[in-house]
Write a structure and sequence with these properties.
With about 300 residues, the protein is an all-alpha fold. Helix content is about 80%, strand content about 0%. The chain has one domain: Up-down Bundle (A middle domain of Talin 1), CATH 1.20.1420.30.
């Protein structure tokens, strides 16, 4: 029964987030926001909503170990799984100059900052404020450094605003039941909730990034695809961890510090190295998919 509740609630969470993303993207385009900026802000925030909603619910329900597993696991899935699939399907993903010079260093810095913040197995209020402050700096830069890409403004549809509100309500309740079922499943299977969060939940909540990025690649919009992955990981690290830490005390399990976080940091650095050539080839995408498979095997091997 708990497995069924988990599957249904996660499905509703993803569908509601998808509606939210689509409505937010239409509103952003109508407001004249360039596509890449939409990728690193509106779309990235929307596709991070499952992680944020489920993490807040986890803290409120007293199982905050889910938060770090969710964040680190989702960041790993975004790079290894999503980017890997994008590179394989698109054959080659181009990385523009601004991403390489600014956004990649911000992404790598966010990974190391997260590792530093949680090394003592908790996140203080001050550290949460630092994370949210870093997010504010990232958003400010993204919104004020458009390289001449213009988008014509149109009238914002009131229907899209209504969809945002209804989707937000659906996200709240589906996240609540998702976390309840995770807690029960972890007890029944005698598996740490952070392991389930870093694997099954992270995989499920990364599906919006998969769909959005693959759709962007098929339309030839590589900026949105890469920007979505970058922005989503930065939002996960700064917004999800920062907001969750303000909601309640976060507990960081030892296995996350010893394995999951180092793997996330190493994968992020590898992603940055791949981007030096300003393109990610299909074979590099296959290598990322292999790394994701190895991560999943290793995660459950010590149980």
């Amino acid at each position: 029964m708990n497995l069924g509740i988990f599957a249904i609630s996660l499905y509703v969470l993803l569908q509601a987030s998808d509606f939210f993303v689509e409505a937010a993207e239409r509103i952003g385009l109508a407001a004249g926001i360039p596509p890449f900026i939409i990728g690193v802000t509106i779309v990235a925030l929307g596709t991070s909503l499952p992680e944020l909603a489920s993490s807040i619910e986890a803290v409120l329900m007293g199982d905050s170990k889910i938060v770090i597993g969710n964040v680190a696991g989702s960041n790993i899935a975004n790079i290894a799984l999503v980017l890997g699939l994008v590179a394989v399907v698109g054959k080659q993903v181009k990385v523009n100059e601004s991403i390489m010079n600014v956004d990649i260093p911000i992404l790598v810095s966010s990974a190391f900052l997260l590792w530093f913040v949680v090394h003592d197995q908790t996140v203080s209020i001050f550290e949460a404020i630092v994370l949210l402050g870093a997010l504010a700096v990232f958003l400010f830069y993204s919104l004020n450094n458009n390289e001449g890409e213009e988008t014509e403004k149109t009238k914002i549809n009131g229907k899209d605003i209504g969809i945002l509100i209804l989707a937000g309500i659906a996200i709240k309740f589906s996240a609540e039941y998702t976390i309840k079922s995770i807690i029960e499943l972890s007890k029944l299977l005698e598996i740490g909730s952070e392991v389930i969060a870093a694997s099954v939940v992270a995989l499920g909540t990364s599906l919006p990034e998969v769909f959005v990025s693959l759709a962007a690649i098929r339309k030839g919009k590589t900026d949105i695809a890469v920007g979505n992955i970058l922005g989503s990981n930065i939002f996960n690290t700064y917004a999800v961890m920062g907001i969750s830490a303000l909601v309640g005390t976060l507990v960081i399990p030892v296995n996350v510090i010893n394995f999951v976080l180092p793997f996330m940091v190493a994968l992020t650095v590898m992603f940055a190295v791949m981007c030096i050539s300003k393109k990610i080839s299909r074979w590099e995408g296959l290598m990322l998919l292999i790394f994701y498979g190895l991560f999943m095997v290793e995660l459950f091997s010590d149980l």
